């Protein structure tokens, strides 16, 4: 089966964004969970005022990933924040290593 | 159906204590969790470990599994012996809430139908309590050109599905997906409601496509920036020259400044992957030496040797 029509998805880049409500709905979580992630510093909304918070597109991936880590490994949000930071650093270091290997 | 050695998968001995099994599971779950792991087969390994733990953590299932005997080897063709589970009274997943159909055929042949037939309770409660369909994740390999111009790519998805008998089958589904111009490797495209259908009127899951570039013969990609190795002749590097260079937008005339050395990077602003801001194209000069395969060529090298008091290793102190 092939749907002949082309699907236009949403590119989760820095230019796309979600409101608090949209993000909660997309991830199937209560807004409290998102707010806790903001308090933990995992999510960084684009505005200060919680009333008009907008979250950059990749936030969706962070929320889903956090939910899986919590469910599968029993990690709490502080642990998830730490894991994300370390994973980010590993990504950066790997990239640098790759550049050193190819001589850039 | 292949026999699965759950002890081997968990890396524990057959007489491991429940505590040892739990510790082994925790360790492996962290190692292979798809959100954390860099291993290419992480998702598969994570599921396999989850299945092994589902059996070994439950004393009833473990005892039944052990009863199959220690002579089976992983991968061996396996059929459950008749009445293999006689004498075991499964509590229908009361101890563990594992969803048999989410695991392998091997698991299901041992624990799936018996449990469901025995009680019908635990399994169906677990399955139907969930109303949201699962999200699906897939990688899409695209060419650099697709990101430069935008494209439509056909994605083939293998989605597990329940047939009328409640067995898991794999359904192939093809989707035409629009790849927007300027997309970067590692970015995700979200297609709402294209994951598993919801159950009992629940919302369907979403489909997440992670973009990855196929290696390109000329350019290496970093974000929206492109890197190109451009060979130049020694005299072009030393004296400066205008040389032809490929760019995604077509061949250009590139000015090589005089006194360039191998490895020098020239930045061509905005000639990378389009976007806001667009990426740059970095051209790295590589000094290529002409082959000394004729008498004239050899004479030219000898002339250079005489002309230059050149020690390329002076920086090494030798």
What would a concise description of this structure say?
By secondary structure, chain A is α+β, with helices and mostly antiparallel strands. Chain A contains four helices and four strands. A two-stranded antiparallel ribbon of chain A has the order 3-4.
Distance between the termini of chain A: 46 Å
The two chains with the largest interface, and their residue counts, are: A-B, 32 and 42 residues
Q: What share of the residues of chain B does DSSP label as strand, in percent?
A: 15-25%
| Average predicted confidence as pLDDT of chain B | 83
Query: What is the CATH topology of chain A?
Result: Multidrug-efflux Transporter Regulator, Chain: A, Domain 2
**Describe the biggest sheet of chain A?**
2 strands, antiparallel
Helix count from the secondary structure assignment of chain A = 4
Relative helix content of chain B:
25-40%
The CATH architecture of chain A is Orthogonal Bundle
User: What's the CATH class label of chain A?
Assistant: Mainly Alpha
Low-confidence stretches of chain A: none
Named CATH architecture of the largest domain in chain B: Orthogonal Bundle
> How far apart lie the N and C ends of chain B?
66 Å
Number of domains of chain A: 1
What does this structure look like?
The complex is a heterodimer of chains A (104) and B (318). Chain A is built from 4 helices and 4 strands, in the order βββααβαα. Chain A is an alpha+beta fold and 104 residues long. Chain A has a single domain, classed as Orthogonal Bundle (Multidrug-efflux Transporter Regulator, Chain: A, Domain 2), CATH 1.10.1660.10. In chain A, strands 3-4 form a two-stranded antiparallel sheet. The relative contact order of chain A is 0.13. Chain B is elongated, with a radius of gyration of 30 Å. The N and C termini of chain B lie far apart (66 Å). In chain B, strand 2 (151-162) and strand 3 (168-179) form a beta hairpin. In chain B, strands 6-7-11-10 form a 4-stranded mixed sheet. In chain B, strands 1-5-4 form a 3-stranded mixed sheet. A two-stranded antiparallel sheet of chain B has the order 2-3. Chain B folds into 3 domains: 6-129, Helix Hairpins; 136-213, HSP40/DNAj peptide-binding domain; 219-307, HSP40/DNAj peptide-binding domain. In chain B, helix 2 (18-32) packs antiparallel against helix 3 (42-56). The model of chain B is unreliable at 91-97 and 115-128 (pLDDT under 50). Chain B is built from 9 helices and 11 strands. Chain A binds chain B through residues 1-13, 15, 26, 28, 58, 60-61, 64-65, 68-69, 72-73, 83, 87, 95, 99, 102-104, and chain B through 26, 29-30, 33-36, 46, 132, 135, 152, 154, 172-178, 180, 183-184, 187-192, 194, 203, 206-209, 220, 222, 227, 263, 265, 276, 282, 284.
């Amino acid at each position: 089966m092939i749907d002949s029509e082309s699907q236009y998805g949403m590119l989760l880049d820095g230019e796309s964004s979600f409101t608090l409500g949209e993000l909660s709905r997309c991830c199937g979580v209560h807004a409290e969970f998102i707010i806790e992630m903001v308090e933990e510093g995992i999510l960084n909304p684009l505005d200060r005022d919680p009333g008009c918070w907008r979250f950059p597109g990749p936030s969706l991936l962070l929320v889903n990933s956090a939910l899986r880590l919590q469910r599968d490994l029993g990690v709490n949000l502080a642990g998830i924040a730490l894991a994300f930071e370390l994973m980010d650093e590993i990504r950066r270091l790997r990239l640098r290593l790759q550049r050193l290997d190819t001589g850039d | 159906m292949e026999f699965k050695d759950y002890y081997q998968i968990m890396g524990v001995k057959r007489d491991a204590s429940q505590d040892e099994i739990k510790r082994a599971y925790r360790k492996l779950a962290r190692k292979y969790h798809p959100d954390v792991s860099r291993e290419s087969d992480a998702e598969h390994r994570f599921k396999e470990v989850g299945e092994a733990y589902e059996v070994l953590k439950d004393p009833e299932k473990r005892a039944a599994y052990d009863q199959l005997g220690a002579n089976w080897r992983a991968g061996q063709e396996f059929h459950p012996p008749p009445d293999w589970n006689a004498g075991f009274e499964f509590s229908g997943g009361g101890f563990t809430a594992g969803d048999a159909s989410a695991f392998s055929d091997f698991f299901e042949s041992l624990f799936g139908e018996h449990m469901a037939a025995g009680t019908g309770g635990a399994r169906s409660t677990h399955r139907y309590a969930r109303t949201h369909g699962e999200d699906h994740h897939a990688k899409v390999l695209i060419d650099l050109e697709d990101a430069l111009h935008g494209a439509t790519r056909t994605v083939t998805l293998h989605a597990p599905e329940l047939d009328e008998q409640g067995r898991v089958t794999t359904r192939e589904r093809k989707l035409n997906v629009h790849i927007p111009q300027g997309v970067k490797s590692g970015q995700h495209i979200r297609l709402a409601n294209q994951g598993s259908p919801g159950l009992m009127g629940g919302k369907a899951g979403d489909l997440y496509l992670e973009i990855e570039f196929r290696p390109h013969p000329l350019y290496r990609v970093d974000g929206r920036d492109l890197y190109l190795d451009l060979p130049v002749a020694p005299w072009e590097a030393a004296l400066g020259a205008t040389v032809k260079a490929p760019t995604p937008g077509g061949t250009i005339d590139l000015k090589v400044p005089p006194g360039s050395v191998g490895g020098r990077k020239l930045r061509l602003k905005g000639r990378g992957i389009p976007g806001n801001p667009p990426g740059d194209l970095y051209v790295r000069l590589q000094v290529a030496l002409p082959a000394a395969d004729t008498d004239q060529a050899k004479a030219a090298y000898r002339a250079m040797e005489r002309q230059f008091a050149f020690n390329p290793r002076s920086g090494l102190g030798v």
